[in-house]
Design a protein that fits this description.
Number of helices: 9
Number of strands: 0
Number of domains: 2
CATH architecture of the largest domain: Orthogonal Bundle
Structural class: mainly alpha
CATH superfamily of the largest domain: Tetracycline Repressor, domain 2
InterPro entries: DNA-bd_HTH_TetR-type_CS, Homeodomain-like_sf, HTH-type_TetR-like_transc_reg, HTH_TetR, Tet_transcr_reg_TetR-rel_C_sf
Largest sheet: none
Helix content: over 70%
CATH class of the largest domain: Mainly Alpha
GO molecular function: DNA-binding transcription factor activity; transcription cis-regulatory region binding
Distance between the termini: 75 Å
Keywords: DNA-binding
Protein name: TetR family transcriptional regulator
Radius of gyration: 20 Å
CATH topology of the largest domain: Tetracycline Repressor, domain 2
């Protein structure tokens, strides 16, 4: 006879899984990927280490799922920023500024998402992360090209270059706690788009 969990047991398991993921976010934000061990997550969640393994085969699988959840959250934030009133260039700048400001609020977590050495399953999710941001930027670059407010260009290539440059620039501020060149990202973005910026001819 095949064992089936009762709705009550399934609800308890789902609740525990959610608590483990919430705890993993806290550990990742405090200690990065290197310090995000199954034991540390279990301690933060207030469960036995074996309970974490009941839901996830290992650290890489746990953090890979966590990355997926965080990507959804962060992409939602930049999409909302891009949908605020403004011209195309302002919308792309809003994406960059929102991404940078949110990263600086949780620098250890952002560094783990962007650049910290990780295992292969997590690296795969990191690529999804970058592509999702690229697609948000590319959508607005494409709109600008079609409207004639941006010069002809490959929207996907421009978007990938902007996202890659922003990620690279952010590594310094995230590891040093010094905002540094973050303030120049808006100017860089406008120039990369070929958009007119009256304050930076």
């Amino acid at each position: 006879m095949v064992y089936r969990r009762t709705p009550k047991i399934q609800a308890r398991m789902d609740s525990q899984r959610a608590a483990i993921l919430d705890a993993a976010v806290e550990v990742l934000a405090d200690s990065g990927y290197a310090g995000c061990s199954m034991a540390a997550v279990a301690a933060k969640a207030g469960v036995a280490t074996g309970s974490v393994y009941r839901h996830f085969p290992g650290k890489a699988e746990l953090v890979a799922e966590l990355f997926g959840l965080l990507v959804t959250r962060e992409v939602g934030a930049v999409e909302r920023a891009a949908n605020e009133p403004g011209d195309v260039a302002e919308r792309v700048v809003a994406v960059v500024e929102t991404f940078a400001s949110r990263a600086l609020k949780t620098p250890r977590l952002a560094y783990a998402l962007l650049a910290e050495p990780v295992d292969a399953p997590v690296e795969a999710e990191r690529l999804v992360f970058r592509r999702a941001f690229r697609d948000v930027v590319a959508r607005w670059v494409g709109e600008g090209i079609r409207a004639g407010v941006l010069p002809p260009q490959d929207a996907q290539l421009t978007a990938a270059a902007i996202v890659g440059a922003v990620a690279e620039v952010m590594i310094g501020p995230l590891t040093s706690q010094d905002p540094g060149a973050v303030g120049e990202l808006s100017t860089f973005t406008l120039r990369a788009l070929g958009a007119h910026d009256a304050t930076h001819p």
